[in-house]
Specification:
Radius of gyration: 17 Å
Helix content: under 10%
Shape: elongated
Number of strands: 9
Strand content: over 45%
Number of domains: 2
Distance between the termini: 15 Å
Structural class: mainly beta
Length: 116
């Protein structure tokens, strides 16, 4: 069994509104956006994480802009390691890709971990 998950992360997120914990880029807010498809309709759920701890989630039908990096997670049950099935374990692999085109060559980082 394999589970796939991905999200896009932005730094210095701004959220408008009178009680916003992220009124401008100096507040240091991070956001992560998860994309889902239901009945042919795409939705984007963005969760904002401000230093104040006042977490907010928003759902829209249009993709947010200004992502900093993309994370892809793959979680495998009973993975095969060096030709041996590790029963009862999980392998978690994370691939992080920087989305800043001005950085050349492009930056990616991948890490895997097998745990019981």
């Amino acid at each position: 069994m394999v589970a796939n998950y991905y999200d896009d992360v932005a730094m210095n997120t701004v959220v408008s509104g009178s009680n916003s914990p992220c009124p401008n880029t100096t507040y240091g807010c991070f956001s992560e956006t998860v994309t889902s498809l239901s009945n042919g309709s795409t939705s984007y759920v963005t969760t904002v994480h401000p230093p104040s701890g006042q977490i907010q989630s928003m759902t829209t039908t249009s993709a947010p802009t200004a992502y900093m990096f993309h994370r892809r997670w793959v979680i495998e049950q009973n993975p095969v390691v060096n030709g041996v099935t590790v029963t009862g374990a999980r392998r978690v692999t994370v691939l992080v890709t920087l989305l800043d085109a001005s950085v050349q060559p492009p930056v990616t980082f991948q890490m895997s971990l097998v745990r019981p």
